[in-house]
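Quick illustration for those who missed Monday's session on complexes.
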Amino acid sequence: MHFLTIDDLTPEELASVLDDAAALKQAQADGIPHTALAGRTLAMLFEKPSTRTRVSFEVGMTQLGGHAVFLGKDDIQLGRGEPVADTACALGLYADAVMARVGSHDDLETLAANAGVPVVNGLSDAAHPAQTLADLLTLREVVGDSGTVAWIGDANNVGASFLVGAAMAGYDVQAATPAEYGFAAETVERASEYGSVDVGHDPEAATAGADAVYTDVWVSMGDEAEREKRLSAFEGFRVDDALLGDAAFMHCLPAHRGEEVTAGVIDGPNSVVWRQAENRLHAQKAVLVELVD
Ligand code: CP
Ligand code: NVA
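Prediction with phosphoric acid mono(formamide)ester bound:
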């Protein structure tokens, strides 16, 4: 089994992974060893920079008794033109699973088709399901098992996985994006299979009654050439105190204070961004145990 999109899990499997993540979090807090992956190795392939994904997966493997190998694209033959499929074959001969951060989601599909071991998405242009696990664990902790969550801003990789994952987990989802940066119809259809999903272009309407408000950067990795165009298109979608109201504030990080969110909001009392970042560790451990154990 691979974990390339959040709905590679069924809603029941998703709930079970979140239960496991909560249990692993408690075990760590209680100092109880949890070495389900002793002797196992995770190959971690990165085509783009990362702080949280890289460190949470590597530390997670260590805490589970296993080991992680960091492979920057230009440190291996992939950077000199070895095909993705051949890279996958080689990694699968040594490692028990592969986690990859890639530019194109197609490369993840190629890795999954050729590795012969589970492949985990560490972010692609289309999806960031590992982040969504941490986001849903955070929502459980701060909102509870049901409620209304809002996505504001770019309908990007993090947003697409959150839209589907939040609906799978039983939350009502309200989203507002600029018209020219909206969610793909296919993403909205996938999310709507699981629950109430309302996408539009009005941030005030989308945040009305929300228990949590989530945003991400306006210029994702790879979108830098469109920076000026994007900054002007997204003006009006900044999360400030008035838009947030008394909701919890969520962001996958890294953030750009003054662009998608004010410093007062992200550094303010309703922000749960560091809880989300911590929960990456527990959620990543849970999905690794699910796929590799
Ligand atoms: N949220 C997230 O994936 O962060 P990194 O880019 O630091 O891994
Ligand atoms: N949407 C951002 C998320 C980074 C974790 C990007 O793709 O750059």
